Amino acid sequence: MRRLLLFWWFLAATALVWAADWKNAAPDYPWSFPADHWAHREYRTEWWYFTGHLAARDDPERSFGYQFTLFRIGLLTERPDFDSDWTTDSLIMGHAAVTDPERRQHRFSELLYRETPFLGQLGTFPDPLVAWVRGPVGTSERWTLRWNGRAFDFAMADERLGIGFELATEPLKDLVLQGPNGFSRKGDEPGAASLYYSFTRLATEGTLSVDGESLEVRGESWMDKEFSSSQLGEDQQGWDWFSLQLDDRRELMIYILRAEDGSPDFRHATLVSSDGQKRYLDADEWSAVATDTWRSPSTGATYPSRWTIAVPAEAISIDVRPLLSDQENRSQLPGGVYYWEGAVDLFDASGARLGRGYVELTGYGENSRPPV
To answer: Which among 161, 47, 127 has a CA at the least distance from the CA of 94?
Structure first.
């Protein structure tokens, strides 16, 4: 859902021509795991998305937030019948970021390549290599995503920015289908939906590098997988998305699609209990209210930057605060994509810690909405 906006920004800029017979998400999709962790080429867009909080093993006060996302962007429903390794039906895009609160730094890396044997490929089940793609210009290491039998291992590097990580994950809870049978509605229009699941709590460990310093790290992550062929509705401007991991071992996922005037247009929330049971919350059971804003000096966009989230029936009242105000991802690729993707801490009204999470904000600022 939320990362679809990024695709449309890029595709509008490059004037790609789309085939008309992509498959739409349907409520009776026949899930089959682990095969559904791999690519679904009959759908137009797809992504594997990870965020998390990590700390150095030998210095737990040295902490980081990270993002790692690989996107498949469908160009055609099948590869052209030409005798060339350069023909393709897809693009592979990567976004990654490291937030370093101690140094007050947020670094964002990106790449975009045709899917070819030379630049990057999407694997086929049961090959453990789900996807690989060449690193950014000047970086020798590939970005990779692998299935390890229970969850995912992944790696990225950007030598110019001085960041990289190689992480392995293990599920602490079973995956959760986000919506009945994983059918995640994004509006009232036919086809306005994705197929969506999450690993809401993954034990994570590995190495993280910043400016040549390599640290052994561990922590917890969140993983999302979505695939669909839909886009924002004509009156939808963008979305606010939250993945919150409470210290009492519950998780809360929220997304709010906004109308052009900024008001909520479509809302959904899933609460996962400490023992892994999911509950889809009715719209009147929860609220998310922005309590502060931050204006980007780079793009001029004004984002909400603090929130109060409440689920009264579940005794949840959370003050959501960013680790850094500036966690805006600003693309240098055609189309000028920018959005806010940041690590947050969770507190109660007295200031006591409740947990941590990630927030994504899209469609804020000028020229930040895709064409429809």
So the answer is: 47
Into how many domains does the chain fold? 1
Name the pTM for this structure.
0.94
Which CATH number belongs to the domain containing residue 234 in this structure?
2.40.370.10
Q: Three-state DSSP class for 272? A: strand
Query: CA–CA separation, 239 vs 234, rounded Å?
Result: 14
Residue 158 lies in a domain: yes
The list of the chain residues with pLDDT below 50 reads 1-19, 370-372
Nearest to 50 by CA among 9, 4, 7, 97: 97
Phi, psi for 363 (deg, rounded to 5)? 80, 15
Q: How many residues does the chain have?
A: 372
> Strand ranges (DSSP E) for 2-104?
45-56, 59-74, 90-100
Domain containing 118 equals: 4-361
Handedness of CA 15, 21, 22, 27 (dihedral sign): positive
Question: Is residue 159 one of the residues assigned to a domain?
Answer: yes
Distance in angstroms (rounded) separating the CA atoms of residues 219 and 238? 30
**Does residue 105 form part of some domain?**
yes
SS (H, E, C) 219-241: EEEEEEEEEECCCCCCCEEEEEE
Task: From 126, 161, 139, select the one nearest 33 (Cα to Cα).
Answer: 126
Whether 369 is in a domain gets the answer: no
* φ and ψ of 63, to 5 deg: -125, 160
Question: Residue 359 and residue 343: Cα distance in Å, rounded?
Answer: 7
Evaluate whether 256 touches 232 at the Cβ level (below 8 Å): no
pLDDT digits (tens, 9 = 90+) for 322-368: 999 999 999 998 777 899 999 999 999 999 999 999 999 999 998 77
Prior bond to 34 cis, omega within 30?
Answer: yes
- Is residue 272 within 8 Å of residue 281, measured between CB atoms? no
